[in-house]
Specification:
The chain has about 100 residues and is an all-alpha fold. The chain has a single domain, classed as Orthogonal Bundle (Helix Hairpins), CATH 1.10.287. It contains three helices and no strands. α1 runs antiparallel to α2, α1 packs parallel to α3 and α2 packs antiparallel against α3. The longest helix is centred in the first third of the chain and has 30 residues. It is elongated, with a radius of gyration of 16 Å.
């Protein structure tokens, strides 16, 4: 494999990890907890930190550009903000002071 293959594979893995985080957050929101629950925030913060470290590592190795890494993180943050807005709109109607949902 040459360096171009490593770069393409790095970008593919980072984008896949961003999508995995989005799926994880969707599952948590649909089944377990609400956005203002400390458990939810902890998982989100941990996942975002891990992805940002992966991006930084790939940038430092020269496998992706800083702009590509920023684009991956920005796109995920935009998707999460959009999901937050949807959940907040739905939950504010029925449970304005909701925090953690009890697990079934």
């Amino acid at each position: 494999m040459d360096n171009v293959d490593f770069a393409a594979k790095s970008l593919e893995i980072l984008e896949s990890d961003a999508e995995r985080i989005m799926r994880l957050i969707r599952v948590q929101r649909e089944n377990l907890v609400l956005p203002n629950c400390p458990l939810y925030q902890e998982v989100l913060d941990t996942q975002m930190f891990g992805l940002s470290r992966e991006v930084d590592f790939a940038v430092r190795l020269g496998l992706i550009s800083r702009e590509e890494g920023k684009r991956i993180l920005d796109r995920l943050e935009e998707e999460l903000a959009r999901l937050d807005a949807e959940v907040a709109r739905d939950e504010s109607v029925s449970r304005p002071d909701a925090g953690c949902r009890p697990t079934p």
